[in-house]
């Protein structure tokens, strides 16, 4: 494969954009090499600036669950574009999508739309603090809830990839209100509550983590967190930015049968346009402005193009009875077959998977928290990444990310992917 054009574009971008990218993981810094600049996406495939094509396992980091540029979503966008791009005034469409989501997801009465997952999580903890009158939150090491100050403490995703999970610029005043626990470690959570009685507003968690690679909750972790929050008058926040409408229509709440107090969304909910959302029961959402005193706002919140793309995407998923089991089956095949090939090659590894999210960790037996994710062999991961890239398979460029499998990945794409894995030669 040739990367001349991407290389030239990256050089130029570096002069005008910090690090040449608008979001750090895109720079390929941890895996090395030049990031591939994309120009088209359709179905399961991406085409880069040098006309190389790739089977896409990132899918815009989750939103393109139907595959790229789905014709029905495209049609909706065209129709809406003719009517107007943005009004900054309420539309019927916003109620339509709010009604659809609250009617199809367990345990939420009202939803507020924003423009990113960061905004959704940032607003959710403000609301939790306003509702409980408490300041502190508990988050888990390796979880990523966007880049707002309270969350950039032992954060996953790009923050972990670049080895700076604690960002300069976050004040010590803010940091002191974020308490940390190990993922899957209930004892630490209990200790934090015991040592901070009536001070903890909320526990926020990725119910299936995707930002330290894919890490699953074990031993009824989510159910136990629910109990601990209830015993201590704290809210449980599920960050379903990745998992919402991906693991099941009702997300992790439905899959694990746990009712969170506040739920945040992003990615799939916008069908590829910039959208986030947070939702809860009436008692909590009534505290939000303009009804209540907790302030939150957005110039482009509920943007009609984004709402159209989101609603159409969700309707397509909802009307397809076999959707989630099909995605899960595809992911299961990839998991088992990739694992078989790596084992035949004598490469120690573990693959974590839930629904259509999965990650391969090299030289690991079990990865159930951030420490274990860090101990995986990231050098082998980086070699594997580049091998797959040059064989036309676009994987997330970091061992701290998850693959997002789309419905456009069919037998042919699976076979091409496995063929590429078969050619991988470890050192
Ligand atoms: N929460 C989770 C679980 C995420 O994975 C992400 C982004 N990957 C965010 C929040 C932040 O979303 P955004 O990048 O849209 O701000």
TrEMBL record:
Entries under Gene3D superfamilies matching the protein: Aspartate Aminotransferase, domain 1 (3.90.1150.10), Type I PLP-dependent aspartate aminotransferase-like (Major domain) (3.40.640.10)
Q: Known InterPro entries for this protein? A: 4pyrrol_synth_GluAld_NH2Trfase (IPR004639), Aminotrans_3 (IPR005814), Aminotrans_3_PPA_site (IPR049704), PyrdxlP-dep_Trfase (IPR015424), PyrdxlP-dep_Trfase_major (IPR015421), PyrdxlP-dep_Trfase_small (IPR015422)
Q: Give the catalytic activity.
A: (S)-4-amino-5-oxopentanoate = 5-aminolevulinate
Which cofactor does this sequence's record say it needs?
A: pyridoxal 5'-phosphate
Assigned keywords, A-Z = Cytoplasm, Isomerase, Porphyrin biosynthesis, Pyridoxal phosphate
Q: EC number(s)?
A: 5.4.3.8
Task: Please give the subunit comment from the record.
Answer: Homodimer.
**By what name is this protein known?**
Glutamate-1-semialdehyde 2,1-aminomutase
**Species for this entry:** Chryseobacterium taihuense
Q: In the record, what lineage is assigned to the organism producing the protein?
A: Bacteria, Pseudomonadati, Bacteroidota, Flavobacteriia, Flavobacteriales
